[in-house]
Design goal:
6-stranded parallel β-sheet; 4-stranded antiparallel β-sheet; 7% strand; 654 residues; single chain; alpha/beta
Length: 654
């Protein structure tokens, strides 16, 4: 018992330290867990013993990890994925399996072992890619959306792969009868789990939720997760697959979000233990002896898998830069591959030496992913000559607006420009979107705005305004740089996610950078000032000052003291505003004289508008009527009192 507790405390302490350190470094914690396992395991410094207790915790981690992955999976989101992802993702998995299988057979491995190698190589790491893209603010970019869709497809494909492992593990089980029996048994078990999860579990979840007791709810969720995994295991399916199916089928439940929030802390803790246990299996002595073999295996993985992804998506999207970005981003081994490898080890599909080679190569591929993603962006811009040879064209158009990106902002801008009859052209890198919008009558062209030739064909030298509205920071900077050199008089407006991008984009040539991060704050700021009756032209000047100074005030930086001092005078001095006299208001029938008495002479009536006729400086005996409009000059406090005097009181709720 003491050994179990010691190992658990040690692993949890390392888990906490790893999460903290890698969060500060903005790196995926999965990499940290694997590295800690390698360094602190029995083949490293020996801080963590490789006892059975760690294996048990790791198995629980696998179950919870796949249960939560299933919970966060959305059938609707998957069905919404179209064209390039379904075709490209399916081709990527199939061709990677075939290529690695052929390479394995060529190297002398049996067909079933080579095929298993292909399954391991075909899957990528969802956790690592999503973390890096999220930190780089590229999830909304086209390559980010394509990567997420491809990873989503791989998660689905992993399910039949898990069913295939037991069949591959039995050399005599490759007859049609045995394969059919195994798959039939698995399908029956999955069907029973599906029926229970779809019709029985939701009813129980509803009853438990009605108790409004979080402890019971969490315990019941764990019962569903572990119980389904146990039933699956007893039916010949792996624990991990059973848990994934349970999460997958509960994902459409109305309680799925609550289940995710409750299970997330447990999942992260046990998943960390799982990845540490994987790292613990790596033999550093083997790594030292076979470092060249490991490096060669990793390079082969990048060339085969990365090359296939690059070729597939370059063809589908007609952009080598986009294909290369995806190829290098997805060229690692994934979490499902590690789980498949553990299953394969149990069925003797991997020898101890092969398992060590796979683990070392997998960890190296994960560690290299951040560097490959950075390199992919730079290489893509350097090597994507020849993209879009058919080229868009703006004809002889002059003084027009070029909109790069057909997202929500780009479409809304185009709609407004069309209404006011300002000539414009949209440029987008997604061929499906370009084709659909063109069929709807929109002036849109397919092309990569990071290429000078494409910008030139869009008439950037003759354009008046360029609006960059894409979610790819690196591509945005490249577009601004090229556009400024093609047209020194062009007015460039850029939308960006973060205010930190403003100085860089401004140096590259942008005239105006609009950060989503602070524009909402500016709008709220302006409306608050309106409530304090600050003149509209003053609000406009203040907002312009905030934007001109790079949102320094909103970033906590110091503005010029004189600017703030002058602005504060508007909040304490007199100002003018208009007021509608409402029926049943306390002062609805006051005379001008009574109104001045109410304000003790501190407020002046500049004008009164009645039925469209303006009366300047109305006399003292002039009596107000409902629907009159008054123009008052006074302090902010008095104008606030005017609102109360001229506004009808709210009726009390009954």
């Amino acid at each position: 018992m003491l050994n179990i507790l010691t190992s658990l405390v040690t692993v949890l302490a390392l888990t906490v330290a790893t999460v903290f350190a890698f969060h500060k470094l903005r790196l995926p914690t999965v990499i940290g867990f694997l590295a800690v396992g390698v360094a602190m395991g029995p083949h490293g410094f020996g801080v963590i013993g490789h006892g059975e207790e760690i294996e048990v915790l790791a198995e629980i981690g696998i179950v919870l990890l796949l249960f939560s992955i299933g919970l966060e999976f959305s059938f609707e989101r998957f069905l919404a994925v179209k064209g390039p992802i379904i075709i490209g993702g399916s081709l990527q998995v199939a061709l990677t399996v075939l290529a690695v299988t052929a390479a394995g057979v060529h190297l002398g491995y049996p067909l079933r072992i080579s095929f298993f190698f292909g399954l391991l190589a075909s899957l990528s790491s969802t956790a690592i890619v999503l973390k890096i893209y999220s930190d780089r603010d590229e999830l909304s970019a086209l390559h980010g959306r394509l990567a997420v869709g491809t990873l989503l497809l791989q998660d689905i494909v992993a399910v039949p792969m898990m069913l295939t492992v037991p069949v591959l593990g039995e050399p005599d089980a490759l007859s049609i009868q045995v394969v059919g029996l195994t798959l039939g048994k698995s399908v029956l078990a999955v069907a029973l789990i599906f029926i229970a999860s779809r019709f029985v579990v939701p009813w129980f979840l509803h009853q438990v939720a009605r108790l409004r007791n979080q402890e019971i709810f969490v315990l019941f969720v764990l019962l569903i997760c572990l119980g389904t995994a146990w039933v699956a295991f007893q039916s010949g399916i792996s624990l991990a697959l059973g848990a994934f199916i349970a999460g997958l089928l509960i994902s459409d439940s109305e309680y799925s979000h609550q289940v995710v929030s409750d299970i997330l802390p447990l999942r992260d803790s046990f998943a960390g233990i799982f990845f540490i246990s994987i790292g613990m299996q790596v033999d550093l002595a083997f790594v030292g002896e076979e470092i060249s073999l490991i490096g060669g295996a990793w390079l082969l993985l990048v060339l085969i898998k990365g090359g296939l992804i690059t070729a597939i998506f370059s063809t589908l999207q007609r952009s080598f830069r986009l294909g290369l970005l995806l190829g290098l981003a997805l060229a690692q081994v994934g979490e499902f591959s590690l789980i498949l490898a553990r299953m394969g080890g149990a069925f003797a599909l991997l020898s101890p030496e092969q398992e060590q080679l796979f683990l070392a190569t997998s960890i190296l591929s994960m560690l290299a992913t951040p560097l490959l993603i950075v390199a992919g962006g730079r290489l893509g811009f350097a090597l994507h000559r020849g993209d879009g040879d058919e080229g868009p064209s703006a004809g002889d158009m002059k003084g027009h607006v070029i909109i790069v990106g057909s997202g929500l902002n780009g479409r809304n801008l185009a709609r407004v420009l069309r209404e006011v009859d300002i000539p414009h052209r949209i440029l987008d890198l997604n061929p499906e979107v370009a084709r659909r919008m063109r069929s709807e009558g929109e002036e849109i062209q397919f092309g990569d705005g990071t290429r000078p030739a494409v910008l030139a064909a869009m008439g950037v030298a003759r354009a008046r305004v360029l609006v960059v509205a894409i979610s790819d920071p690196m591509a945005t900077a490249r577009i601004v740089w090229h556009a400024r050199r093609l047209n020194s008089d062009l007015y460039i407006i850029v939308r960006t996610r973060y205010v930190a991008e403003i100085p860089r984009l401004t140096r590259l040539g942008a005239n105006e950078v609009i950060p989503e991060e602070f524009e909402t704050s500016v709008e709220i700021f302006a409306r608050v000032l309106q409530e304090y009756h600050v003149p509209r032209n003053v609000i406009t000047l203040q907002v312009a000052m905030v934007r001109r100074e790079g949102y320094s005030m909103l970033r906590g930086l110091r503005l010029e003291g004189q600017s703030l001092a002058r602005f504060s005078q508007f909040l304490t001095g007199a100002t003018a505003d208009t007021f509608l006299v409402q029926e049943d208001a306390p002062g609805a029938h006051y005379t001008i004289g009574q109104l001045k008495e109410h304000f003790e002479g501190r407020t002046s009536v500049l004008a009164l508008v009645r039925e469209g006729v303006s009366v300047e400086s109305p006399p003292m005996d002039y009596r107000l009527r409902p629907d009159d409009i008054l123009v008052l000059l006074g302090s902010h406090a008095d104008l606030d009192r005017a609102v109360q005097l001229l506004t009808a009181p709210e009726e009390p709720d009954t």
